[in-house]
Structure formats: C-alpha cells, structure tokens
Design brief:
alpha+beta, Nucleoside Triphosphate Pyrophosphohydrolase, Arc Repressor Mutant, subunit A, 2 domains, seven-stranded mixed β-sheet, two-stranded antiparallel ribbon
C-alpha cells in the first residue's frame, strides 16, 4: 500500500510578470479573468501546476495558453504563500518575470483569459489576488539587475543604435543619462558588437547599428 502523507497539501501555481517597452513606457501584460474568483478583473497570466510538471514548464505553458506568447526570457522571481491570498484554497505561487522586445510579441487571449492587453507600469487597473505586490517586486528586481547584468538587452530588437539602447535604460531607471558616459560604459562591457550598418533618422547624422553578442543569455557584468 503506498504511503499516505497525513498533512493536507496546498495547491501550487505559477504567475508571470511580462515586461516590454511600448510608446516609450515600461508596460505590463495582464489578462482579464473569465471565471471566478475575481471574474472580470485584470490579473497576471498564470495557473495551476500539473502534478508531473516542472515549475518553469508550467510558467511557459500558462503564458502560451493564456496570451499566445512563447520563447521569451523567463527568470524565477519569488514564492508567495500568504494563507489568504486565494479564496479558493491554500495556494502557493512560484512567480516568474519575462522580458521581450515589443516587436517580437503577438497577443492572443485563450484558455481561461477573456482578454489580454498591455498596461503602463504606472497605470495598472485594480488587480486580482496579490498580483499588485508581485508586480512591484518584479519591477524592483528588474531595476536592481540593471547595475550588474545585461538584462536590459532583452528589450532590444535584433539590431539597434546606442541611442535606442540608452532610451531603454532611461525608461527603466526613470531618469536621464549622460550620453557620453553611457556610451563609454556600455561599450566597455564587451557585450554588443557593430553590424557594419548605419541607421539614419531624419536630419541626424547616421548612427552605427549594433547587436547583442549573446542575445539568449543574461550576462553578469560585475
């Protein structure tokens, strides 16, 4: 006879904070819940872990099923387990955050999501569960990692100029950066390379075009 553990088992979910940059703002991907609890509320994409499923596989599956997004950078964030965080039962959520360039994302609401949309980080609607707390922690982690990793490169298209890369950093940090110092610092990292092409915008001088050497990997730079 198989051993039966005498204590009740909590359910486990994964929830995913997806960041991108649109209209020069940091944006969060939310789904509108199609069922109770919190039917009609906006929430993070996510769902219950299957009994034979790896945590990251669950996060990737739920993201794909509810939003149509796949193949993005995923990193585990934190485990949320307050006893009253879900009115259905005792639910522990292992959360992730994902990053992607906006031109690589095509949204499609599916599964138990009635709708899916982007919202500015500073203008999100009332959220289900404790998802506001999860988003704030994910944002704090993202900003902290700018100082010691190449995580900002995950927001970039395949090719870009240094001005476009600087704009991404300024959006994430919510501050203006000195152009000369930024370029000196970013080139000293040795993480991007010239493509040999030039980009011209309006009456500005042509700018060198770059690409990330290892686009599928976030490098530690300190």
């Amino acid at each position: 006879m198989p051993y039966s553990y005498p204590y009740p088992h909590p359910a486990v979910t994964t929830d995913i904070v997806v960041f991108t940059i649109l209209a020069e703002k940091l944006q969060i991907l939310l789904i509108k819940r199609a069922a109770d609890p919190y039917q009609g509320f906006w929430a993070l994409p996510g769902g219950f872990l299957d009994i034979d499923e790896d945590l990251e596989e669950c996060a990737a599956r739920e993201l794909r099923e509810e939003t149509g997004i796949s193949g993005v950078y995923l990193e585990q964030l934190y485990t949320f387990g307050r006893p009253d965080r879900d009115p259905r039962e005792r639910v522990i959520s292992v959360t992730y955050y994902a990053l992607s360039a906006s031109d690589q994302l095509q949204l499609k609401a599916a599964s138990d999501a009635a709708d899916v949309a982007w919202f500015p980080m500073d203008d999100t609607p009332e959220l289900a569960f404790d998802h506001g707390t999860i988003i704030r922690m994910a944002h704090q982690r993202l900003v902290a990692k700018l100082n010691y990793s190449t995580i900002a490169f995950q927001f970039m298209p395949d090719t870009f100029t240094l001005s476009e890369l600087q704009t991404v950093y300024e959006i994430l940090l919510n501050e203006q950066l000195d152009k000369r110092n930024f370029r000196k610092w970013i080139l000293s990292l040795g993480q991007i390379e010239e493509t040999g092409n030039m980009s011209r915008r309006g009456n500005h001088r042509p700018a060198r075009v770059y690409r990330v050497k290892n686009p599928d990997k976030v490098e530690i730079i300190r």
